[in-house]
Amino acid sequence: MPLSPFPRVIQPPRPIPRWGRAPGDGPGRTGRPGRMIEPRAGAALPGDRPLCCIACRAVVTSENRRITVDGDHRHTFANPYGHIFEIGCFAAAPGCLGAGAVTSDFSWFPGTRWQMALCAVCRLHLGWRYVPVSGGFFFGLILNRLVSGPAASEV
Ligand SMILES: [Zn+2]
Questions:
Q1: What is the CATH number of domain 39-154?
Q2: How many whole angstroms from 38 Cα to the centroid of ligand 1?
């Protein structure tokens, strides 16, 4: 995989917002590589619009799961290799797999630890799963690797 797993902070630290803890998530479930983060199907909720993996069109998350983190939904970051990522923050991404160890190294969001987030179907690198020290989690997903549904798997 050509993309670096080591993002780097290029924005000044800001106050850490409070996070809601999702049902079933806990500190003990975050550290295992390759583990399904949420076992539920990735289908969007009624009235919602799915956002799908650009490679395999599996449902990853949905419009209604967009959230604001550090004052904005969208953030643009560069990693130490100069790759620029425009990411959007999501409260959940049932279609993602967490991969690799959870680490606090070079976290883009102050006060968070992170791990890679891959498409659960095709393993495309879709972004990162962030675990604030205050609890809960959220996803930072690379926006140009998501496309609007409907997904092929949704019938
Ligand atoms: Zn995929």
A1: 2.170.150.20
A2: 16
Domain boundaries, the chain: 39-154
pLDDT in tens, the chain (155 residues): 445 555 554 444 444 444 443 443 434 344 334 434 443 444 555 678 999 999 999 999 999 999 999 999 999 998 888 899 999 999 999 999 999 999 988 888 999 999 999 999 999 999 999 999 999 999 999 999 999 987 444 44
Q: Which segments within the chain are labelled E, that is strand?
A: 50-53, 59-62, 74-78, 84-90, 96-103, 112-119, 125-132, 138-142, 146-148
Place of tokens 């975050």: 30
- Distance (angstroms) between ligand 1 centre and the Cα of 146 equals 9
Gap from CA of 15 to ligand 1 centroid (Å)? 34
